TrEMBL record:
Organism domain of life: Bacteria
Record key words, sorted: Lyase
InterPro entries: Aldolase_TIM, DapA-like
Protein name per its UniProtKB record: Dihydrodipicolinate synthase family protein
Organism: Winogradskyella pelagia
Family under the similarity heading: Belongs to the DapA family.
Keyword flag Secreted: no
SMART domains with a match to the protein in the record: DHDPS (SM01130)
Signal peptide positions on this chain: none
Pfam families given in the database record: DHDPS (PF00701)
Coiled-coil parts of chain: none
Length: 305
């Protein structure tokens, strides 16, 4: 399947049972809700997917199950976040074998690689696979920035490096990327609280977090702005903002999973050492969710725009 780098692609959460096993039933419930809402792709194994806690066989099982559930409706992407180039190459091969349509790739984990090391890492993995690649550029959380000069070397040398998940928190970077690369490097905004601004400045799509609990509202914002109905998109985005802020928080996994409980498409179970929210922190998040739900807006027929 060819991938079109546009639209809303959920960074999907991994569902667990109370005894810390994969909950494939609730996982399917959530994926079905995403597809019904009109998302344009599914991203597995990201931070929201608690990838660092997943065993290799669990990642493969989730990929295989998602491919089966999706059945070609939208592309399935697997995130690669490894400590060594060798492990990243192996992960890319397994993703391809398991039916993934594309990869999202972080720089090397733990080791703070220099510019040349980072570029060499991406190039080596890209040349080992036929799958299209989206480079995840998040220097705020992962401490390594892929600069425009580094991207120039990557796109010149690796045709399958096609997109960037732009998470620098700098809206002007969208314009810089477009000015430098035109349509050669597609831009997927990766920060929920900057999503509409990024789309209006030319980003092609949105790798989203709160979409896991509110898929229809997320897709509606994308489709409204795409259709030029900016005022309606802004009004919906303003309602959504207190929820979107739950994504830019160290407890984003717990926050979003709690929101999924309230919208009946997830559970709170997380993999230790994470624990579900408790105390005042839990009360504050519940208040945000319940307040938003009490004012949940009516959505226009956004799929027909």
């Amino acid at each position: 399947m060819d991938i079109t780098w546009e639209g809303v692609m959920p960074a999907i959460t991994t569902k667990f049972t109370s005894d810390d096993k994969l909950d494939l039933h609730m996982f399917k419930t959530n994926i079905d809700a995403q597809i019904d809402a009109g998302v344009h792709g599914i991203v597995l194994g990201g931070t929201l997917g608690e990838a660092s806690t997943l065993r290799e066989e669990e990642k493969r099982k989730l990929t295989q199950e998602t491919v089966k559930i999706i059945n070609g409706k939208v592309p399935v992407l697997l995130n690669i976040a490894e400590q060594s180039t060798k492990a990243a190459i192996e992960a890319a091969k397994k993703a391809e074998d398991d039916g993934a349509n594309a990869l999202m790739m972080l720089p090397p984990m733990r080791y703070k690689s220099g510019d040349k090391e980072t570029v060499t890492y991406f190039k080596t993995v890209a040349k080992s696979t036929k799958l299209p690649i989206m480079v995840y550029n998040n220097p705020v959380d992962y401490k390594i920035e892929v600069t425009l000069d580094m991207f120039k070397e990557l796109v010149n040398d690796c045709p399958n490096i096609e997109a960037v998940k732009e998470s620098t928190r700098d809206i002007t970077n969208v314009t810089r990327i477009i000015n430098r690369f035109g349509n050669r490097l597609k831009i997927m905004t990766g920060v929920d609280t900057l999503a509409l601004e990024s789309l209006l400045m030319g980003a092609h799509g949105w790798i989203a977090g709160l979409v896991c609990a509110f898929p229809k509202e997320t897709v509606a914002i994308y489709e409204l702005q795409r259709a030029g109905r900016i005022r309606e998109a802004i009004e919906l985005y303003r309602w959504f903002m207190p929820l979107l802020e739950l994504d830019i928080n160290p407890k984003l996994v717990q926050n979003i999973k709690l929101a999924e409980v309230y919208t009946c498409i997830g559970t709170e179970y997380v993999r230790p050492p994470r624990l579900p929210l408790f105390g005042k922190e839990r009360e504050q998040v519940i208040d945000i969710i319940e307040t938003a739900l009490s004012k949940r807006p009516f959505l226009p027929p956004y799929k027909q725009l």
